[in-house]
Design brief:
The protein has 8 helices and 2 strands. The chain is an all-alpha fold and 190 residues long. The protein has a single domain (22-75, 85-188), classed as Serine Threonine Protein Phosphatase 5, Tetratricopeptide repeat (Alpha Horseshoe), CATH 1.25.40. The chain has a two-stranded antiparallel ribbon with strand order 1-2. Strand 1 (78-79) and strand 2 (85-87) form a beta hairpin.
Length: 190
């Protein structure tokens, strides 16, 4: 009986280790998600980033990108093929998901997680999206969502030294009654 249990545990362990994505697979998923963002399909990008996170949840940059995808998606009104509204403009559930991902991004950043993709967001102080400015200067986001993201970039980019500036960005969003922005304010501004 014990031998059977040990064999099952060994098989389970080896099977679970075999499920990790290779760096080539990660790069393909990442590039596909970035193409989805550029093509105006942030909802598809969020699904791909979720797949990467389900494989390895230590990539702070992927949480950041999924949060951006959620925030971008929240700025769209999406209908299905029958014309039924899937979600409207400023969908609070998407904003909430984005804020929780940004919270996780900040937490992971200061825990020294594995970095993927390499070089992405290396220059967060300038709030520029690398590599090659693929997402531009965040001007595609509305003012409120841009404030949320700029707060995260300021907090991370200054290594917590410009905490008050980051908190000012988040407080702007709070004035606009952004749902769940207090998650960031309560955790990083107190």
């Amino acid at each position: 009986m014990r031998l059977t249990i040990i064999v099952i545990l060994i098989l389970f362990y080896s099977f679970s280790k075999g499920q990790t994505l290779t760096i080539d697979s990660l790069n393909n998923l990442y590039n596909g998600a970035m193409a989805d963002i550029r093509d105006g399909s942030p909802d598809h990008a969020a699904i791909v980033f979720s797949k990467i996170i389900s494989d390895d949840s230590t990539y702070f940059k992927i949480y950041f990108l999924r949060a951006l995808s959620y925030l971008m998606d929240s700025e769209l009104s999406i209908s299905d093929t029958n014309g039924l509204l899937i979600h409207g403009f400023n969908d609070t559930s998407l904003i909430k998901k984005g804020i929780y991902d940004l919270d996780k991004c900040i937490q992971l950043y200061f825990l020294n997680p594995k970095v993927f993709p390499d070089g992405f967001l290396d220059n967060v102080k300038d709030a520029k999206m690398e590599p090659s400015g693929r997402l531009g200067d965040l001007s595609y986001l509305n003012d409120v969502n841009r404030s949320i993201v700029n707060g995260v970039l300021t907090y991370i980019g200054s290594n917590k030294k410009n905490k008050s500036i980051a908190c000012d960005y988040w407080e702007k969003a709070q004035v606009e009654k952004v749902y769940k922005i207090e998650v960031l304010i309560n955790e990083f501004c107190k």
